[in-house]
Amino acid sequence: MSGLVKFIGMGLFLIALSATAEESSDAEHIENLLNQFLAGATVNDVKMHDRFWAEDLIYTSSSGKRFGKATLMASLSSAPAAGEQRMRYTAEELQIKLFDDVAIIAFRLVGESASQRHYYLNSGTLVKRDNQWRVVNWQATHMKPEQ
Q1: The pTM is what?
Q2: Are 105 and 126 in contact (CB under 8 A)?
Q3: Exposed site from 58, 121, 139, 144, fewest CB < 10 Å?
Q4: Domains defined for the chain, CATH in brackets
């Protein structure tokens, strides 16, 4: 009987270990996706925007406007041409919370040009569909400059 208990205990341990490894893999994938997106946003990469945002996106901008993916994608045509760098974007203090096929991210977005530096508190909800993480909800809040 003790052999069976050990076997069941080992099985439960392996299941827990596998779940932890999958969460770590998903968290790393989401962090990489965010970094790729920010690099793409820096050069106005329309394909990266299309990959990052889900079709049913709800986006709340730092100016308090709410819109979906179609509006966001249409706004890219008035942005600088691909390859033209206007503002470089990076993420600091990234937090990722995983709940099966849903992830919540929160981070401080830094937008930096030659003459300016802006900070935003961003949070987003990603859903894993067809084995791809996509953002379904986004909130951006402009921060006062650090002093």
Answers
A1: 0.78
A2: yes
A3: 144
A4: 2-143 (3.10.450.50)
pLDDT-derived band at 10, boundaries 50, 70, 90: low
Long-range contacts of 121-128 (CB under 8 A, 24+ apart): 122/91, 126/30, 126/102, 127/54, 127/101, 127/102, 127/103, 128/26, 128/101, 128/102, 128/103
Is pLDDT above 80 for 139? yes
Can you tell me the mean pLDDT for 96-108? 97
**Phi (first) and psi of residue 9, to 5 degrees:** -60, -45
